[in-house]
Design goal:
- The protein is an alpha+beta fold.
- 36% of the residues lie in helices and 31% in strands.
- A hairpin with a 5-residue loop joins β2 and β3.
- The chain has one domain.
Length: 204
């Protein structure tokens, strides 16, 4: 009598458990990797939006200042507020004001820069990951280094703009903010030329 042995294919309980553990580890690792990539993409996108906003807004403000005959600097809500005075072709005075807000950014004559087309970034579709705040806007005359340069110094200003990106906390873990700074120096040739001209000053 011949005995026939038949091998059965299949998985033991231990093999099944090992497979489940390996698949779970791979799934968790893939999920964490995907989230890390998404977070980096979100941060880079938001930083790009902030840099674009800062450069465009300051470009318009610097253009206004460079054409001005006079500029007054005051303080409002902890930020610098500037009032720019210049004369048009008919020697009529034109006044432009620039102010700053923590949550609304820079305003030129109470409007967004670029005729309302340059809005302060809020993170867009990534707003749930971070908050964006304007934390510094300061305008100051440059210091006088020599008596002969007083006239030049009074016509030259340093402008500092600072925007902070604060990632939202994950559980009990607080993430460090990222600060993006913009620094510009602007010279006012019209003020330099006309600051001793009493006729021009009286028109302004």
């Amino acid at each position: 009598m011949r005995l026939m042995f038949k091998s059965e294919s299949g998985m033991t309980l231990m093999e099944l458990m090992a497979t489940v553990v390996v698949v779970s580890i791979l799934t968790i690792g893939l999920g964490l990797t995907t989230r890390t990539i998404q977070d980096h993409y979100a941060r880079d996108t938001v930083k790009g939006d902030v840099r674009l906003y800062g450069n465009l807004a300051l470009r318009e403000i610097l253009k206004e200042i460079s054409l001005a005959n006079r500029m007054d600097v005051s303080t409002m809500n902890g930020f610098s507020r500037i009032t720019i005075f210049r004369l048009n072709e008919q020697n009529e005075p034109i006044q432009t004001s620039v102010s700053a807000s923590l949550t609304q950014g820079l305003k030129i004559n109470n409007r967004e820069p670029l005729n309302g087309n340059c809005t302060f970034p809020d993170g867009g579709r990534f707003k749930h990951l971070q908050t964006i705040r304007l934390t510094d806007f300061s305008v100051k005359e440059i210091p006088v280094i020599r008596p002969s340069l007083v006239k030049f110094a009074s016509s030259t200003y340093d402008i500092n703009l600072e925007i902070t990106i604060q990632p939202k906390a994950e559980g009990h873990r607080k993430l460090d903010p990222e600060i993006i700074r913009f620094t510009r120096r602007v010279f006012m040739p019209m003020k330099y030329v006309t600051q001793n001209n009493s006729v021009t000053q009286s028109l302004l």
